[in-house]
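User:
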Amino acid sequence: MDLENAKAQMRKGVLEMCVLAVIAEGETYPPEIMKKLKWTDLIVKEGTLYPLLIRLKNDGLVDYIWREGVNGPPRKYFTASEQGRQFLAGLTESWQQLVESVNKTLEGAEAPDGEKVGKRKGKTPPKPLNLEPNEPGN
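Assistant: Predicted structure:
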């Protein structure tokens, strides 16, 4: 199994939820989304973000409005639609259940029969999660 491919699949799986969560906080535009994600150690580039925003818009999860820039061209500001908020709530609940299950497995949860399952040796702190897919050949 290719570790880099497995990590890329995990990143793809959480990116939509994270971007939608940032947008659900309030009206925002792409550079702000990238800044907020970077602040949380989730790294995403414009080439990944803009196609995702288009998909979210086409799926009815976000809306946008053009606003004049103070010192520049107009900007496209995104907001979460009601459908997007409901979708995010469902994703969040599912994510929390998944994290709990994975943590139980990694940390050695006790099974109903009293047997310990899964125990991660040599725990190290997680590294920042880069949400960018790897370049082909890497």
